[in-house]
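Example record

Each entry pairs one chain with its bound ligand, S-adenosylmethionine.
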Amino acid sequence: MTPETPAADPKSNPNPPPGEPGSGAAPRGPDWWLMMKAFLTQGRKIASFAPSSGFMARKMIDGIDWEQARCVVELGAGTGPITAQLVKRLRPHTRAVVIELDPTLCGRLQARFAGVPNLDVIQGDATRFDAYLAERGIPQVDHVLSGLPLPSFPADLRDAVLETSARSLAPGGTFRQLTVMPLVYYRMYARYFDDVRFRFCPWNLPPGGVYVCRGFRGGAVPAK
Ligand SMILES: C[S@@+](CC[C@H](N)C(=O)[O-])C[C@H]1O[C@@H](n2cnc3c(N)ncnc32)[C@H](O)[C@@H]1O
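Structure tokens for the complex follow.
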């Protein structure tokens, strides 16, 4: 694993508490508490007050052909419920790149998945995930798994994530998006992809599901 942590700001607290940027220590407390705290302090940037259930995490990765997959990218991994499922299935020939913006949640990920071969956990902004891939010499990805709160992103950043994902996908690849508002954003994803399917997951808090999108429309994205 090669975590990317921004250089410490010299003006910042020299002794930050565990889990804060620069502390070098893993954040304490159960995953649900870390998510709840992040949600209470950052609201729409986090979008969910609890980590995804195991049912939801498995829905996200269901049907991936691990014999074929060479690279899987996860955007907005939170405390890592989907990463955990991913890691269980990773083959020696499959690389996984996991990106999380929040330093505390990313600290949990880095502590939890330290030493997992073929896994990069990056503290960074998923809207520039193509740059992280380029730095690692990864030209294409087989599957993009997004837990990002895309509907609450500014339209240009949401477009950037969807277009970059779509353009980075290998033939036959999928873009998968978590949601806790079943089917509400179906049309939004259908603007970018020819084939959008929704998998409902009642066993999550709150109930939600996963959009599985294939076949980037290419060229200019149709008008909203
Ligand atoms: C709804 S939570 C999903 C967390 C996790 N995937 C799960 O299933 O429990 C959304 C996550 O996206 C992260 N996030 C939001 N904006 C981001 C960005 N621009 N780049 C990377 N991560 C981001 C948040 O910090 C949060 O952890």
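Residues 155-168 form the longest helix (14 residues).
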